[in-house]
Amino acid sequence: MKRVIYSVGLFLVVLFLCSGFFLSYQVTEMKERIHILETDTAKAKQEVSAISNMREQDFIFERYEEGKWKRESYRVSAYGTNHVIFRQEKENQESEKGFILQVEDGYVVVYQEGKEQVYEYTDIPLEALPLQMQSEVLLGKPVENLDSLYSFLENYSS
Asked: pLDDT, tens digit, for every residue of 16-68?
């Protein structure tokens, strides 16, 4: 009879120890999840606060319509906690304009044709292009329209 009581007691001690280890593991796991959520929330708050003055920012919306890329520019006219009101600035037909591909610091950069300002910086290194394309880009490769530009960027970006 004593063996049965000792066996049951030993079983209960082992059960309590295992339960304690398991629960401490779960608590540690939950603390790690809470920490990750707190850091993600802090990052999100920083990103939201990064746009300090939305009224001075341009928001560009692009869409593909009737075989062409349409690009529209908007500015924030008012915003609150539950809404943002955009006002269209002007109709911008950049899809009809050409672009020039050039190299800066070893990466392909897109310039709008006829303008000195950069249209878009890319993460495409010159070495990633085929040799023929490298020589064209080094000389300033012309691209006819926005569709051709996006096709190029899709083909060569990683």
From this structure: 888 888 988 888 999 898 888 888 887 776 655 545 555 566 777 777 777 77
Is-contact 99 135, C-beta < 8 A?
Answer: no
Q: Give the span between the Cα atoms of 6 and 11, in whole angstroms.
A: 8
Say if residues 99 and 112 touch (Cβ distance below 8 Å).
Answer: yes
Residue 127 DSSP class: G
Asked if 75 contacts 96 with a C-beta cutoff of 8 angstroms, the reply is no
List alpha helices for 51-139, DSSP H: 131-139
Please check whether residue 75 is in contact with residue 87, taking contact to mean a CB–CB distance below 8 angstroms: yes
pTM over 0.70? The answer is no
Looking at the DSSP assignment, which residues form a beta bridge with residue 78?
A: 85
Distance CA 126, CA 120 (A): 15
Do 63 and 70 touch, CB atoms closer than 8 A?
Answer: yes
Length of the chain in residues, anyone?
Answer: 158
Q: For residue 69, how many C-alpha atoms fall within 13 Å in the half-sphere facing its CB?
A: 17
